[in-house]
From TrEMBL, chains A, B:
<dbReference type="Pfam" id="PF01565">
    <property type="entry name" value="FAD_binding_4"/>
</dbReference>
<dbReference type="GO" id="GO:0004458">
    <property type="term" value="F:D-lactate dehydrogenase (cytochrome) activity"/>
</dbReference>
<dbReference type="InterPro" id="IPR016164">
    <property type="entry name" value="FAD-linked_Oxase-like_C"/>
</dbReference>
<dbReference type="Pfam" id="PF02913">
    <property type="entry name" value="FAD-oxidase_C"/>
</dbReference>
<keyword id="KW-0274">FAD</keyword>
<dbReference type="InterPro" id="IPR016166">
    <property type="entry name" value="FAD-bd_PCMH"/>
</dbReference>
<dbReference type="InterPro" id="IPR004113">
    <property type="entry name" value="FAD-bd_oxidored_4_C"/>
</dbReference>
<dbReference type="InterPro" id="IPR036318">
    <property type="entry name" value="FAD-bd_PCMH-like_sf"/>
</dbReference>
<dbReference type="InterPro" id="IPR006094">
    <property type="entry name" value="Oxid_FAD_bind_N"/>
</dbReference>
<dbReference type="GO" id="GO:0071949">
    <property type="term" value="F:FAD binding"/>
</dbReference>
<keyword id="KW-0285">Flavoprotein</keyword>
<dbReference type="InterPro" id="IPR051264">
    <property type="entry name" value="FAD-oxidored/transferase_4"/>
</dbReference>
<keyword id="KW-0560">Oxidoreductase</keyword>
<comment type="similarity">
    <text>Belongs to the FAD-binding oxidoreductase/transferase type 4 family.</text>
</comment>
<protein>
    <recommendedName>
        <fullName>FAD-binding PCMH-type domain-containing protein</fullName>
    </recommendedName>
</protein>
<dbReference type="GO" id="GO:0005739">
    <property type="term" value="C:mitochondrion"/>
</dbReference>
<dbReference type="InterPro" id="IPR016171">
    <property type="entry name" value="Vanillyl_alc_oxidase_C-sub2"/>
</dbReference>
Amino acid sequence: MINTKIYNKLNYRKTLGAISNFKISKNVFEFNKNYGTKNQSAYQQSRSILNNPARYTIKQTTRFQSSIVSGVNRNTLKTVSVDDLAYFKEILPETGILSTEHLGGNNEDADLLKYNTGLLIEHLGNSKVVLLPTTTEQVSKIVKYCNEKRIGIVPQGGNTGLLGGAIAYNNEVVLSVSKMNKIRSLDTDSGALVCDSGCVLENLNTYLDDYGLIMPLDLGAKGSCNIGGNISTNAGGIRYLKYGTLHGSVLGLEVVLPDGRIIHNLSTLRKDSTGYDIKQLFIGAEGTLGIVTGVSILTAKKPSNVSVALFGLKSFEDVLEMLRISKVKLGEILSAFEFTDRIIMEKVLPILKKANPLGSEHMYYVLMETSGSNREHDEQKMTDFYELLSEKNLIENGILAHDESQVASIWNIREMMTYGLTSSGDTYAFDLSIPAYLMEKSIFDFSDFLKNEGLYSGIPDTYTDPKHVVKFISGFGHMGDGNIHLNVVVDKYNDDLTHKIEDFVFNYTKNLKGSISAEHGIGVIKPRFLHYSKSEEVINIMKKIKNVFDPNGIMNPNKVLPQ
Amino acid sequence: MINTKIYNKLNYRKTLGAISNFKISKNVFEFNKNYGTKNQSAYQQSRSILNNPARYTIKQTTRFQSSIVSGVNRNTLKTVSVDDLAYFKEILPETGILSTEHLGGNNEDADLLKYNTGLLIEHLGNSKVVLLPTTTEQVSKIVKYCNEKRIGIVPQGGNTGLLGGAIAYNNEVVLSVSKMNKIRSLDTDSGALVCDSGCVLENLNTYLDDYGLIMPLDLGAKGSCNIGGNISTNAGGIRYLKYGTLHGSVLGLEVVLPDGRIIHNLSTLRKDSTGYDIKQLFIGAEGTLGIVTGVSILTAKKPSNVSVALFGLKSFEDVLEMLRISKVKLGEILSAFEFTDRIIMEKVLPILKKANPLGSEHMYYVLMETSGSNREHDEQKMTDFYELLSEKNLIENGILAHDESQVASIWNIREMMTYGLTSSGDTYAFDLSIPAYLMEKSIFDFSDFLKNEGLYSGIPDTYTDPKHVVKFISGFGHMGDGNIHLNVVVDKYNDDLTHKIEDFVFNYTKNLKGSISAEHGIGVIKPRFLHYSKSEEVINIMKKIKNVFDPNGIMNPNKVLPQ
């Protein structure tokens, strides 16, 4: 629905001769109609493209920096034998085990493919046994047995990670929590939700909707990812700006330790000051310290009004100034501030077969979301904000979306951006935390580096030398949280190039005291880069803590920690 | 300033015959004028009363449950010798050491009294050496030496804790960070503040004020407490409802480990997904794993409008319903929801020599605060909220305070409540997390228990049997966070009574899966009660983690962990 009040106010600005033009655009409706986001979430669309079987054969894949899956040294752990499988059959029903024939199982390799392949080309596991328990006690029995026999276990949720953290590269047992998907309790007063770790994020939101609540995180993979996996990778996503880190919203965890003991710590308390907060260690541990089987999390009141706006701006300075003003003027209702450069917009729109929703091209774009409890107030704040932006000549154009389908259609552009990259060539995708004001500079410096190395002309899609293998560089991301997704698209991956690019980007990030993984974890790809973000002292403490929990090293071997 | 718009609206309700009467009361002004809170914070008032030297001789003291300081077994650590002191003199200037004559120092025991006495009667330490370093390197050298020599260290900040966590009971060295009080940096865009751990909370707020920012926590002791101590006890306080736990807002810590190594982890990043989040362990560790010397914390935009209202209600059911409605109607601007029963109000007002600001007596009182970015919107939301409460007959009376001094004067009543108890007799004060809807029931059940034990008549200040040692029971607290301060005031402490009361309250809390310490930590008083809130598995892991960091056990011995 178009809000005529705002519309008139904005038109009023227009007649006053403001340069900017904040359109409640019919484009949004067209865009939405064609893409039908009302009944099909943006994620599902992305997923259907990504799930194209051809993706394993075409070159357009994304790599998280490295063509080399590191740390996958064959370890000393035992692989599953026929006897072991027989034991698992005592614990789990037939439907709870997938295993191949040579172990006395009933399945083809193909049946296990779903658990052995992730989203990216590096994600190719070789597990012969996938266990699908439905209770914490089953998990405990399995883990206890594996610990005694020194069998490696790879815990898995929705298998939507990008760093290979849930892939069994050494024929470990895959223990999927995906069949543990019951909601255990909801305190509608406090908002504390207790559920199994295998619950799909989107399903939790659907459940909560009846009670006027929402999950405190949201991400592109919501239709498949499990809450246990979100917690284990310390996932970020698009609600982070408003609801903050999982370290704050997770109230308690039930965890099966690597020796099979169960930590029953599903506290629903908001406040607890009784010594070391052990559960924090499992947030971001990617299953290397134990398997999260139950989750207690603080949900939030569902905002009664969500608005999304897309703006076009002429410079990064203007984007920065807009971010500053948005924090003051929109304050408590600002829930997302995403920026992107023009290149990615030019790449993603043709894939979506759509014109630019603004009807005009800009140097930078900002997608902004507000979530509040009073529509009239929120719209007034947004209008005041818009008027201030106009007075300061900060924006060149803008559209505002109110209803759910409009909102989804604009978010869809944001969520499809990665595909805009991978459709153009092999992509090195970085997930960095750096200060917001340095984001443009980081893109420029990266570009200069590649130019000086003779790998890039410095102008997107332009080649003045046969050695120019870089097609373009592009940055977008959660600017409000200081999280940039920095990408370089090349003709074809090669190891020399990979090392050069990684070396530059990680050193650059280290010099800015940034994070080499803002929201996607470490998995199997980044342990050898961990030292760029963590000091030797901290890595040593991490190793000692790993040893406290998992002295036999059976739990998600070779993940997170460097060798 | 009285907001006439709201005033008229509320009067309008009144003329419609609403039972409730939401007064913008002149009482508030009177109250404020007499107490002069404009130039003297409520805390300072409380402090001046609590600092009365007589408090160590009079019986009106508060005990956190136990008359027995537990876990203070003499340990095997060395105490400081003349040689040790000579070494400390190489590291620190004369002004950085307080020590008594027998060690070759220049001070009387009295000079060390400030560091050897806390707020409560149990807090009497016996340290002969207080070290006051000004740099992290000095801390590191001191700690390294003490570790080699096996000298126990008690880290101390503002020494405002209530559980004796910062008191040296076994003649350990007190290492006070209070002279480390520099602000290191502020990123005004992201709000990341980096400072020394000895900065006083209120000073940080004063500094931030110029940049339109505030600290994400606030507590009664703000004029003395240090941010390092807040983090080490995982402090809660009155902004918790809006800004949440320190586990979410602390971005990084600089910590001197028990072997003297320094963890430089003053990240200013909002997002970081690079493995185990080690800094989380120090939040709530009360200095048992290392000494926090530097802090990076996410500050919040200072709300441009803060309003505080005090309501009188007839029943706890109405308080609960009001809490539910406030979360929906006030949403993102609700920043505090405190409740109290009538008894504490009757006790505290005479001490403040004031009439009830509502001009009427009620069964329950609610103090509610909103903090928002737009005064007009906030007041509209508060008015809508008030009107809904009136329609539902949920409130009997109310006053609304807008300007800073009015707000402070109402908060002052809340902050003085503990003194309302201790002026009436010896007080057992519990700091519990339990579900909000069970708070009244917990008071009733506690009352019934004491009645059945023959210790209480069941009616406040009424004695029908000579064995009635209990004067009254009272509950108040941060209801919006599920944190109740449950108190029993008795004629005089005795150990038998102490054990009976503790046993009942802690078992009761355990049965509700509550926390025996919501926001005040464990210190030296509660380690032996830890098992009521933490399972054996978790306590074992805590001990192992302590051993990873501090194998020699020099760091704050006998605190937090049970023997």
